[in-house]
Amino acid sequence: MTSPALLALHPVRRTARPTLLAVAHGSRDPRAECALADLVDGVRTLDAELDVRLSYIDHSEPSLSAALQAQREAVVVPLLLAAAAHSKGDIPGALQAARVANPLSRLTYGCVLGPHPLLLDALEQRLAKAGVPPEAAVVLAGSGSADPEANADLAKVGRLLWEHRRGGPVEVAYASATHPGVAEAIERLRRLGHEDVAVAAYFLAPGRLLDRVHADAAGCAVTESLAGTEAVVRLVVERYAEALAGAAAMNCDCCVYRSAWPGHEQRVGAPQRSHPHPADQR
After folding, report:
1. CATH classification of 4-113+230-281, choosing from 3.40.50.300, 3.40.50.1400, 3.60.10.10, 3.40.50.150?
2. Neighbour-count burial of 15, counting CB atoms closer than 10 A to its CB (0-12 exposed, 13-18 middle, 19+ buried)
3. CATH no. for 117-222
4. 179-198 tens-digit pLDDT
5. Which pTM does this prediction carry?
6. H runs (alpha helix) in the chain
7. Residue 217 — very low, low, confident or very high, per pLDDT cuts 50/70/90?
């Protein structure tokens, strides 16, 4: 499956375009930094004349705040699979602070990566690489969040993955923050009579949570993270192009900053604040 908007997207040969400032969560795991650096290198290969930089919300350097200080004009593309606290609070807060510090700066904010048909392509590529047949049952495992909308987005991706495959059932599981967990989802599929079960890892890069998925997989095949796929590289470029064209539209109807979800009522209308990156505290 290929996004119709992507059909006209080819490596661009214009000049004076803003920097693509990609921002990832960050990890203490060096494997994560390597995977994300490879993703950014893939973007540079796809569009050799685009200035692409990588920054982080936490743990890794440079911090988003430090990277913004070096940019007068940039399109910020979050390397995040779902809209949650980092995309709704941390990144907008950092952008607001950067605009206050430099009123002449021109900073544009792009959409998070998912849900998107290209992510389904990436999941399919990983399932095929792992030798998972279409008729196998699949557990789609994501990170999990305290944000109800982010958890619902993973459930949406699970349904879309089934529509994409039209094979065995797809159950959704979360590695943290909420339920069901991976082991629980696998057990449910086993009880329903599915012997061939695989886990599709809905993570951009390796790290602690993906390691937890492997530990809970009960011997089931677990696919690789998604950053190394061509589909994700093309998606990053598409998110940049959308933002540059002023078409980075987000559905905010279910956002915790707008809707009073149980346990999150205090966040409605709350100001967007940037996460304090350790490097910025020195």
Report:
1. 3.40.50.1400
2. exposed
3. 3.40.50.1400
4. 999 999 999 999 999 999 99
5. 0.85
6. 30-46, 64-69, 85, 91-101, 117-129, 148-165, 182-191, 208-216, 230-244
7. very high
